[in-house]
């Protein structure tokens, strides 16, 4: 991991959105709130994202694209950027992980890992 990648930490909180889910139609909606912390000494800009989403049936899907929620935020040193998005699974349990492509003021690109996190309905034991 480059020193640039270690300057970014990603925290995640998830929530099951029961009111917009239809378990009898295999539709489970989850929101996730991401906080990206810039622990380094220079601005970093989020350019793109790449997600790998796996449900409990082993179905994998990948999502990639520019920015997040329509933005390519620049995060100052010792500050953070937070956003909320969502995904729909066909099962009540899944895992998401991925990476952000970031760039520093010198134009150096680096990948910031998004650690794997669980999406599950409340009370699910597996």
TrEMBL record:
Q: Which SUPFAM superfamilies match?
A: ApaG-like
One Pfam family cited in the UniProt record for this chain: DUF525
**Residue ranges constituting the ApaG domain according to the UniProt record:** 2-126
- Name the HAMAP family for this protein: ApaG
NCBIfam families to which the protein is assigned, alphabetical: PRK05461.1
Q: Spell out the PANTHER family in the cross-references.
A: F-BOX ONLY PROTEIN 3 (PTHR14289), POLYMERASE DELTA-INTERACTING PROTEIN 2 (PTHR14289:SF16)
Kindly provide the name given to this protein in its UniProt entry. Protein ApaG
| Gene from which the chain derives | apaG
